[in-house]
Amino acid sequence: MSSKQDPFADLEYFNKTDAKDITWAHAVNSKAKLNEFLETDILMFEGDVLMRYNRNDTDPIMAHPPANDSDLTLQIFLKSLKPTRKGIKLDFKTIMAVAPAMLLLKSVYDTTDKPLWLNADILKGPGSNSGSNPPVDANDFITTCTNTYPDATLSLGWTTGWYEGISNAGYTQDMVDEMERICRNTTQIITFPIRAIYVRQSWVPLKWLLDTSSRYTLTIWSAVDDNVKVEDLVWLTKQIDKRRLYLDLPPELDDAFRKALASKGVVVSSLGSTASLMFASLVSLIVKYQF
To answer: Which Gene Ontology CC terms are recorded (predicted)?
Structure first.
């Protein structure tokens, strides 16, 4: 069994050699969605963690702002996935939820080889509101996660925005320099969630960041209404070790990307048939794809 300090341990857990073959269930923030996705062959389950009613004297729940209540608690979410071969990604929208969630995670999963990812936007990135601060403090998040669950993968991102018809600058060297300074003294595996619309124009600084440590990977994501060029994603696959590039895309973009790869003779695994049908049925319900 690979060490959790091995950046490819999660791939080994799923018996994969290509990070593009990892499939994702998003916004698993209700019992109905949890039960629905448990019937599929999707590998990683992502949910958003908040404190109920945004109060620190309540329990952690699975909900995305502006919602502040849910029928699915974090405890039920974690316990339901424990007997499965599914991985877990917890997305934190506020620092308030981090410490209670980490204690609960430790109580349910004292030790496990299951992939556990802890995500938060800790820095301001391209297109983000100039007057706002990231919702989760970088030092508090990393320290709390590290002290409580040091074997988890940290997913450390930037707040971003993208606007049709407006010149949108990408990730700058200053942005990745700041991230590198934050991460250099950590020991965990770290993945950096990168908005797909910016990846090609930002490749020089992103490649520099990736090359600063063998512990680092990239997770490429997109909003539904971003005008991502499929050829940019195909280009990206040629720039990076396939074990270090996760692609977490909306269903239609993911399908177009895999077809483009196949047309160039690249063999990739597609979503399982059950998962594909599930995702297709959800597309019409998604107003805005959230990472």
So the answer is: extracellular space
Confidence at residue 252, expressed as pLDDT on a 0 to 100 scale: 96
* Interatomic CA distance for residues 262 and 265, integer angstroms: 5
Residues making up the chain, counted from first to last = 291
Domain range summary for the chain, segments of one domain joined by +? 9-265
Q: CA 241, 221, 96, 87 torsion: positive or negative?
A: negative
Q: Which fold has domain 9-265?
A: TIM Barrel (3.20.20)
Element (H, E) at 10: helix 9-13
Q: Locate tokens 């160039």: which residue?
A: 264
15 residue type, one letter: N
Q: How much is the pLDDT for 274?
A: 36
Tens digit of pLDDT for each residue in 267-288? 454 444 334 434 444 443 444 4
Query: What is residue 231's three-state secondary structure?
Result: helix
Query: Crossing angle of helices 230-237/251-263, nearest 10°?
Result: 60
Q: What are the angstrom distances between the C-alpha of 165 and each of 10, 82, 144, 226, 287?
A: 39, 45, 40, 11, 20
Q: Cβ distance 88 to 78 under 8 Å? A: yes
Mean pLDDT by 10 residues, the chain (291 residues): 74 98 96 97 97 89 93 98 98 95 96 95 90 86 96 97 85 98 96 98 98 98 95 97 97 96 67 41 43 46
Pairing of β 60-62 and β 44-51? antiparallel
